[in-house]
Description:
CATH class: Alpha Beta
Distance between the termini: 28 Å
CATH architecture: 2-Layer Sandwich
Strand order of the largest sheet: 1-2-3-4-5-6
Radius of gyration: 14 Å
Largest sheet: 6 strands, mixed
Number of domains: 1
Oligomer: single chain
CATH superfamily: STAS domain
Structural class: alpha/beta
Mean pLDDT: 95
Order of helices and strands: EEEHEHEHE
Number of helices: 3
Strand content: 25-35%
Helix content: 25-40%
Amino acid sequence: MENISIEATTKTPTVILNAQQGLIEIKGVSIPEDAESFYRPLLDWLNEYVATTKLKKTIFSIKLIYFNTSTSDYIVGMMKKLKQLTNKKHEIIVRWYYEEEDEDMRDTGSHFQVIADLPFEFIPSKDIA
Length: 129
């Protein structure tokens, strides 16, 4: 399975999907004009990862400064897909980074945690970009 690495633009985040390390990272700003075309390949990769991984742990790091509603739908979808691995005794950790003063982003992470029913680590940071 090939890894995916996408460089950030002014409207899309940096993305790292590494199957060998069990690492998924989304970082930056996510306000794509066509969220489906941006996120569909990531979901396709994740479907294959969930079906084939032999690892026992996956870390999903989210370091978003700002994102739109369509992005939130895809992020939650990715979390729900990862949740399927818990049936295989696979540990999933979501690391939710947020700027120290941004309580709204912290609260959004808490909301996602409830929806996804996955363990979250909330990590305040001075600069997540």
